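Quarterly update, task 2.4: SAJ-bound model.
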Amino acid sequence: MNLSKALKDKSARIGVVGAGYVGLPLAMEFCRKGFRVTAFDISKERVAELMAGRSYVLDVSSDELARHRKDGLFGASVRFEGLSDHDVLFICVQTPLRKSKEPDIGNIIAAVSKIVEHPRKGQLVILESTTFPGTTDEIVLPLLEKAGKLGRDFFLAFSPERVDPGNHVYGISNTPKVVGGVDPVSTRLATEVYGQIIETVVPVSSTRAAETVKLLENSFRAVNIALVNEMAQVCRHLNLDVWEVIGAAATKPFGFMPFYPGPGIGGHCIPKDPQLLSWKMKMLNYVPRFIELSTNINQGMPEYVVSRIADVLNEGRKALHGSRILVLGVAYKPGISDYRESPSLDVMDLLLKRKAAVTYHDPFVPRVQVGGRRMASVPLTDKALRSSDCAVILTAHKEVDYGRVVRLAPAVFDARNATRSLGPAGKVHRL
Ligand code: SAJ
């Protein structure tokens, strides 16, 4: 099989292992360009939804999915023997951290093992899952070599996913794609494949370089968020408004990029990715201090926010114990329903441990579990606001009327500067 030719005439069969927030948009992008694509997933429920033309991923519309089902370009399957019918395979599976903060690449190994069971001569395998440097070379390559020879039976590359859920400006086709192969031919082929769907492809010298690019991108965010989280505490000691300081610094048109403090960092990328690098470096007897320090600061923010809430209550001669705290926003960032690793949950857990009476309102998140306790979002009624001792803004969904919150709640602690436009109101306290 000549992959270059099959790409040019669009006869190349594309397989995506892992039909999640990374794999499904990638599959759709190839369908848009006229390629036949199969999404392989271990979940029967997901496959059934996809085969019925129903999307469960924020950035993929059911209309488009149904259209590509109808035009025969898109299919989904739990039967991994079909892998051997595909010329290009993308692995887009989750790489969670264990409780011990060690990376768990079990999903990658399971996916590659299935590819080894069902090989196809000349197949190009591209790993997209975020992982520690060396995974492709040291783990994936030896597994694939059990079923064939690199350069003859298979080709192998790594390319970090740059999907930003909910981003309507940057999608797959207009976000430059970094790619590194285990050998120059793999790099060239992977560059050709991505060139079918993405405007700019950036080949790098190795899979390790490509793996490390992703970790730098997200460590950059984690470290800068930690910096402003520390600045929030610095400004508190200087009796300054950190939001004013950052806002003014952000007027600098060069050499500065604003980040904003908050109750900590959530999501499936930023809390996890730097830990992958940190773990790898410890294996090499090097401690990446910036990552360790930023993790420490970011993970300390929930406790700091709780101490600030205690200060607010104290001004009203109230203790945390028994105070009614109404938390606003548990999703990990505004405008979405995802609350994985959300620092709001940590703040609520700490408040409950101090025997505060905690309720929450989040228009996107109807139910959560906090420290083993099931909680449901309460309607944001006048009574809920008036009867609280303090309303605490942790995720600033734009759907909430913060002017009303300030009017009706006896005290407000705002960890996201959501009340900025409301001016200095005596009962509003900001991070
Ligand atoms: N956060 C802050 N202050 C900030 C920025 C973020 O506290 O200034 C918090 C957020 O509230 C959230 C966490 O950090 O809890 C992560 O926020 P994020 O803006 O990085 O959002 P994510 O997790 O959706 O990150 C994704 C990442 N995409 C990928 O890893 C593929 C990230 O690389 C993107 O840059 C980011 O989206 C984005 O640009 O929004």
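Highlight for this quarter: The pocket of SAJ is lined by residues 161-165, 217-218, 221, 225, 259-260, 262, 265-267, 269-270, 332-333 (CB under 6 Å).
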